[in-house]
């Protein structure tokens, strides 16, 4: 049951993009196109789960026993960078189709604050190993959900008559604000 | 070196309006949205970013000829992460309540595109003096935007500024401004306003 709660809360209530403001840059930059939004969301979910798998043992089995918690930022960013690099090489060797689909978005994930933010938040929550992984899946899917929703809305926005100064990022942010309002409705799901 | 050098004062001024990291370049949006619930947070955050930006730019500008081009990104990240850790630990030790309300966004300065972007675009190509001016200008530009957004949100959403009650008892707080939705709405309108002013300036 706890696992379900963690999953739903990460997916809807504490949505990474709309409630915690992580990964906004990519959210605004890439959500103008449906296909790339889906690819980016998949890539982020994938790397996020891997980060959960790798960072949890590193933090709780290496850094905490050695009293090196203050190195967490440095460690996590290096882990994420290496991970992304490895994943890229692995996918390139095994599945060219997937590699083409993810394309440029994979290396971009290194500097996506959703991933590093996820690692930093996850270790402060005192989750067990399994819970952390579920939290990673939920967060990644939440990011994908926000991204895809926004891409859908932006497709419609292109034909809408928007005041000139608000065109581009302005209207995207205001749309995101309304989406965030709507997502607040999910807060009642879990007490 | 670039063929035509901009004047030193321009390197400082450009960050405030013309290349403002938030409003024009759209860099570093996540903390801009997340921590602007109160003016106090904005002050803390912009000082932390200014410190990290200044130190990293100076450090990298000084080392720019020593770092091999192939591994420059990795080198930059490690340097930035070191300064971010310093400011994070400082805040935790001396400003625990501020550190708590900024949450993960202090360590997240590492992946803040402002710092990475400026380091890559500017100080890996320019000298120390110019980098100092550039980082100061960018920090002022970033700080100003944070102040404006958090001022608006705190005033409308909570009726206070820096924690002091400004609005009278007749004021009903707009709770939505403190919530995540308010951040998006404020920044979106502000972007529109900035674009509007820019187009007016261009015409005249």
How does this model look, in words?
With 191 residues, chain A is an all-alpha fold. Chain A contains nine helices and no strands. The model of chain A has no long low-confidence stretch (mean pLDDT 86). In chain B, helix 4 crosses helix 5 and helix 6 runs antiparallel to helix 7. A two-stranded antiparallel sheet of chain B has the order 1-2. Chains A and B meet through helix 2, helix 4, helix 7 and helix 9 of A and helix 2, helix 4 and helix 9 of B.
Provide the fold topology.
The complex is a heterodimer of chains A (191) and B (204).
Chain A: H1 2-13, H2 24-30, H3 34-63, H4 72-94, H5 96-102, H6 105-108, H7 113-124, H8 129-157, H9 169-184
Helix pairs in contact in A: 1-8, 3-4, 3-7, 3-8, 4-7, 7-8
Chain B: H1 8-13, H2 29-34, H3 39-63, H4 72-94, H5 96-102, H6 113-123, H7 128-158, E1 160-161, E2 164-165, H8 175-178, H9 180-203
Antiparallel strand pairs in B: 1-2
Number of helices of chain A: 9
* Rg from Cα of chain B: 18 Å
Straight-line N-to-C gap of chain B: 34 Å
Number of domain units of chain A: 1
Look at the structure and give the mean pLDDT of chain A: 86
In angstroms, what separates the terminal alpha carbons of chain A?
A: 13 Å
Q: Please give the number of β-strands of chain A.
A: 0
Count of all domains of chain B: 1
Biggest beta sheet summary of chain B:
2 strands, antiparallel
Strand content of chain A: under 5%
What proportion of the residues of chain A is helical, as a percent range? Answer: over 70%
